[in-house]
Amino acid sequence: MLASARAADGFDARGDARSRTYCYRVLQRRERSVFERGRALWWPHRLDRDALHACAALLPGTHDFTAFTPTQTEPVRFARDVMAAR
User: Fold this and answer.
1) I need a surface site. Which of 25, 37, 70, 82 has the fewest CB within 10 A?
2) Are 78 and 57 in contact (CB under 8 A)?
3) CA 84 → CA 6, 27, 31, 74, distances in Å?
4) Taking the CA of residue 43 as centre, how many other CA atoms within 13 Å lie in the half-sphere pointing to its CB?
């Protein structure tokens, strides 16, 4: 079952989020797609799926993302919990 409700006044979708989900897409084919331009990485080469799965297996856990954050950013806590990667 899905449901929705009006957010409280002052709610900030970015700042008040408890978690986020990211999806990075790779389009592995010889020709570019006009429909996926800007939405997926076009990769016209052979894809090493075993290597991708091995890299994804290393991601879950707590990591410090300070290096990916602008210097004048609030809050100052940059450790994040990666729950899953596949």
Assistant:
1) 70
2) no
3) 29, 21, 31, 25
4) 12
Q: How many angstroms separate the CA atoms of 14 and 40, rounded?
A: 23
pLDDT band at 65 (very low <50, low <70, confident <90, very high): confident
Query: CA 78 to CA 8: how far, in whole Å?
Result: 26
> What pLDDT, in 10s, does the model give residues 13-33?
888 888 889 999 999 999 999
pLDDT band (50, 70, 90) for residue 73: low
What does the CA dihedral 62, 80, 83, 54 come to, rounded to 10 degrees? -60
3-state secondary structure (DSSP) of residue 56: helix
CATH of 26-82, one of 3.40.367.20, 3.40.50.620, 3.30.70.660, 3.10.180.10: 3.30.70.660
Q: Quote the pTM value.
A: 0.65
